[in-house]
Design a protein that fits this description.
The structure holds two protein chains of two kinds. Helices cover 71% and strands 0% of the residues of chain A. Chain A contains nine helices and no strands. Chain B is mainly α. Chain B is built from seven helices and three strands; from the N terminus they run αααααβββαα. In chain B, helix 2 packs across helix 3. The longest helix of chain B has 76 residues. Classes of the chains: A mainly alpha, B mainly alpha. Chains A and B meet through helix 2, helix 3, helix 5, helix 6 and helix 7 of A and helix 1, helix 3 and helix 7 of B.
């Protein structure tokens, strides 16, 4: 039977390193994806992911369980991303993934996907990345947590530490900016 | 006619977002759905934002090509902190003391010998093994008789050799033995280096081979996909040609 995060956390606090390894296995991909989408650089996202788990491990005895373990991890990762942006004094970089060339897209393509589809998909990917990079940090974070991590409004409010109504406003404003940017780059394709 | 003003009120933006993400309560949702049927502005906006959601859904994050590892011993160590620039907070007396210590140790190691005599003036000598010629004579008031100088030097050399011999644990019995010893060291060192180079070469060859294998596998996979896609394109074109031919043949 699969253990819940809370059970694994309790066992990790009791000194069971294997339980913490299970938590890493479960959450390393989402945390890496969050860091990558927030800062836009694979190398630095990797460091942030590693550092997030290291900090979580160190702070585990102080984790009281008021929030979900995943929300707590997201908060640590977002704080590290914010530190990175402050240190680097820059907005997220629009950097196409290092290996994301056509050949790689083709390797991951659906069997029915043609070369034209692949090219269109790559273009869309680049447009979305560019549009996301133009969002203010708070709006981008809200959209990333909602769209790609499926957090509820309340969970986002807990992670970023703001009222629920603010989360809704950020999402609405962010989506509106994206709509404008995407329709501009696509020549009005998005309605 | 398209409606330009929405009457929903201040909560409109929040309601649109809650409706989009399916997070509004049942009654609230029904009320907003009723509003949507009447408000073209909100309908257009909801449709537009749905399109945005569909489009940003294409943004994939690369797969992590690493494994997070928590190195337990490193947890006991404090986080690395950049060291402050050297000598910024070091007092002057400490720097002077350190300099004096270094000079003292250096002089000891070099067996520095400073002497002054009216005949030879001030002389500075260093070194252990060979009887030094006068390293540096600062001032020589008068030339000393050569015989006295040579005898003193010989006496000094003899004293140094005696001292050195007493400090050596296993002195070489002769120059030949010393030479053999040095040769043995050299051969030993050379063999060690050869072994290291051979190991490194083997390691590199292994890395190159594994990289080559993974590249070949990747190329093979991508070629397969391209071949498949090309085949499909050919089939599609053939079908189009057939259908065109049929249409042409049906025309009177």
């Amino acid at each position: 039977m699969t253990s819940t995060d809370e059970e694994l956390v309790a066992r990790s606090v009791g000194g069971d390193a294997d339980s913490f390894n299970q938590l890493i296995l479960r959450w390393e991909r989402p945390i890496y994806a969050l860091a990558y989408r927030t800062i836009g650089r694979e190398e630095d996202a990797r460091d942030i992911c590693q550092e997030t788990f290291l900090r979580a491990y160190r702070a585990l005895p102080r984790f009281r369980g008021q929030a979900k373990f995943s929300s707590w991890l997201y908060r640590i990762a977002l704080n590290l991303c914010r530190d990175w942006m402050r240190r680097e004094r820059r907005a997220p970089v629009v950097q196409p993934p290092e290996d994301m060339d056509l050949m790689d897209l083709a390797a991951a393509a659906e069997p029915s996907e043609s070369i034209e589809d692949l090219v269109a998909r790559r273009d869309t990917l680049q447009k979305v990345e560019r549009a996301m990079a133009k969002l203010p940090e708070e709006q981008r974070t809200a959209i990333i947590l909602k769209e790609y991590h499926g957090l509820t409004f309340q969970e986002i409010a807990d992670v970023v530490g703001c009222p629920l109504s603010t989360v809704k406003t950020r999402l609405y404003q962010g989506l509106t900016v994206l709509r404008r940017e995407l329709s501009r780059s696509a020549g009005g394709r998005v309605a | 006619m398209k409606q330009n003003v929405c009457s929903y009120g201040d909560a409109r933006d929040g309601q649109i977002v809650a409706y989009l993400y399916d997070e509004s309560a049942g009654e609230e949702r029904q009320a907003f759905e009723r509003h949507l049927t009447a408000c073209a502005l909100c309908r257009t906006e909801v449709d537009g934002l749905r399109g945005v959601r569909a489009e940003i859904g294409h943004w994939v994050s690369p797969e992590p090509d690493f494994v997070v590892t928590i190195d337990e011993p490193s947890l006991a160590m404090p986080m690395p902190v950049a060291p402050p620039p050297a000598s910024r907070h070091r007092p002057v007396w400490a720097q002077a003391l350190a300099a004096a210590l270094i000079l003292g140790v250096g002089a000891g190691v070099a067996n520095l010998d400073i002497s002054y005599s009216p005949a030879q003036g001030l002389s500075v000598r260093t070194g252990w093994r060979h009887a030094p010629a006068v390293a540096q004579t600062v001032a020589t008031p008068a030339a000393a008789p050569a015989v006295t100088w040579q005898s003193e030097m010989k006496a000094l050399e003899a004293r140094l050799r005696t001292e050195l011999a007493s400090h050596q644990v296993a002195p070489p019995s002769s120059d030949e033995a010393e030479l053999r010893q040095v040769r043995a060291w050299l051969m030993d060192s050379e063999q060690r280096q050869r072994r290291e180079v051979a190991l490194r070469m083997a390691e590199m060859a292994r890395e190159v081979e594994s990289q080559r294998q993974s590249d070949l596998a990747r190329i093979d996979r991508n070629l397969g996909i391209l071949q498949r896609d090309t085949g499909m394109e050919v089939m599609r074109t053939r079908e189009q040609m057939n259908s065109l031919a049929q249409r042409v043949s049906q025309q009177p």
